[in-house]
Amino acid sequence: MELLATSLTLSAVSTALAAPFTSPFESSYVVRLYESRDRFMPPQDAAALPSQLMTTESGHTFECFLPSLAPSDPETAEPLARKDSKEVESEQDTEALVAFHRAAVRELESLCIEYTDEETSWFYRICANSLIFRSRKPLTEVAIEVTGAAAPAQVEEGGGGYDVEEVGTFVTESSRSVLSYDAFADLETQERVKDLGHALLTQTFSKNGQEVQVQFICSASAQDDVVAAVQWREAVATDGRREIAAFLVESQVFCKSQESEVDTDRLVTMQSLLQPLQNEHTCVTRDEGWWTYEYCFGRSVRQYHRDEDGQLTADYTLGVFDADGNRELERLDSALVLEPFDETHDVSRPAYLELYNFGTLCKTSEKQAPRKAKVFHFCNRDGSSQRLIMVKEMQTCVYTVKVLSPVFCDHPHFLNDEQESDETFEIVHCIPAVEEAEAVETLEVVAE
């Protein structure tokens, strides 16, 4: 089968002719369109393979026969309970938050957050996904094995030896409501925790059956990763000293862009990441057939052609940076988005959107209108330079531009950008809705 040049978005079309069908997908989703070498024969029994009319962005309508998504053993399968839109939205929000926090905690794996309990003189180090250990005095060096276990060691500092005591090794993680903490580093955090409306990523560490919990929360103002609160264990140690049962760790990597409590002046912003590229007048180009496309960060999008002698024979500006439009995007929290990466990756990835308007005039219908473009910036963890990966005219003189750069990866919005997909695929066979059409299409739909 030959993969056609474009990925399409199909929208379900309600019709009395279509068999009843409850789709697990969104009402609009991305597919890849293939040409089938063999004619697909629709089943005689419509109930065995229900159909649904779908229309491409270009206006072509197909009748698509949808595969069964029922469990392999229908006799033992329990019927699915219908959920209202609010329940579904709440579950999706929770899953998205958990995924974001799990990605964020990976940013802390190379760090150990330090905390000193002044009353007991214990100096703690909390290493996410690894272990918690402590000593009576701050340590200059502790050897941690690759497995995450830390053996008791002697560390020389100032001529004296100090025992390192393991508090617990990482066991598991879950999403839990905020714990009841006994001591806070500041009143601001204490008040914020009272009104927290979502669960926190919680890691459990254990030693000899005694557990210690570590919860992670967005930092409102602290630039460093810090312990913001602790919970004391109800039973005291054998020497009468108090023991810590839980830590609350604050870090900016757990801050999503829309969280109102974030101190935006101290957070890494997309503007600060893009500024060096703009100051250096960085541009990237892409050749596609007769045309060359050029994107200059923070300045313009351009389309041109040079002949064999290097002479410029055609030159169009597809858009220049729209300062007012982009400020409005930021104000509405609409700049940080999810967008399909390219035409061979149907799963949406985190992206940063900018508007480039006021391009060269273009004739649309009976009037002249300036060209304009939407530029989506993606994180590139595998490269060290910027790349222009796509320029596509979505409609007359309206363009979509997609750019890769490693500089975007430092922003929290891109922390859960896996850049790989384990999603399964379902084949959906479609035939033209118009009877006299002879082409047969096969659609491959990405199942979320």
From TrEMBL:
<feature type="signal peptide">
    <location>
        <begin position="1"/>
        <end position="18"/>
    </location>
</feature>
<keyword id="KW-1015">Disulfide bond</keyword>
<keyword id="KW-0732">Signal</keyword>
<dbReference type="GO" id="GO:0005788">
    <property type="term" value="C:endoplasmic reticulum lumen"/>
</dbReference>
<dbReference type="InterPro" id="IPR012913">
    <property type="entry name" value="OS9-like_dom"/>
</dbReference>
<dbReference type="InterPro" id="IPR045149">
    <property type="entry name" value="OS-9-like"/>
</dbReference>
<dbReference type="Pfam" id="PF07915">
    <property type="entry name" value="PRKCSH"/>
</dbReference>
<dbReference type="GO" id="GO:0030968">
    <property type="term" value="P:endoplasmic reticulum unfolded protein response"/>
</dbReference>
<dbReference type="InterPro" id="IPR044865">
    <property type="entry name" value="MRH_dom"/>
</dbReference>
<dbReference type="InterPro" id="IPR009011">
    <property type="entry name" value="Man6P_isomerase_rcpt-bd_dom_sf"/>
</dbReference>
<dbReference type="GO" id="GO:0030970">
    <property type="term" value="P:retrograde protein transport, ER to cytosol"/>
</dbReference>
<protein>
    <recommendedName>
        <fullName>MRH domain-containing protein</fullName>
    </recommendedName>
</protein>
<feature type="domain" description="MRH">
    <location>
        <begin position="281"/>
        <end position="411"/>
    </location>
</feature>
<keyword id="KW-0256">Endoplasmic reticulum</keyword>
